[in-house]
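Lecture 7 notes: from sequence to structure.
We start with the chain below.
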Amino acid sequence: MPAWVYFIHPPRERFVETITEEESALMQVHAGYLDQLLRDGVLILAGPTFGDVNTGISIFEAEDEDAARAIMLADPAVQAGLMTPELRPMRVSFLRGRD
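Predicted structure tokens for the same chain:
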């Protein structure tokens, strides 16, 4: 199945350091969404980057671009307009533990 990466770009630099209570609550819902994708066998990995720019990275599988875009756009942080999404196709070439 094809792999995809979607980035979620935060609304400002140092987002992790300056997150508000409302944003934190929304990011908890976002985390629950990713956890469900992981339990459903869709998500390969996800997490934030640190430093001045805290872009989130999610790598997942979807049949085609439409399905991948639907997964990305269903992310609560994207739906709420907090994060700006970016989708790219990718190939998982190296993965620890993969035969």
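Points to note: Helices lie at 15-18, 21-39, 65-73, 76-79. The longest strand covers residues 3-9.
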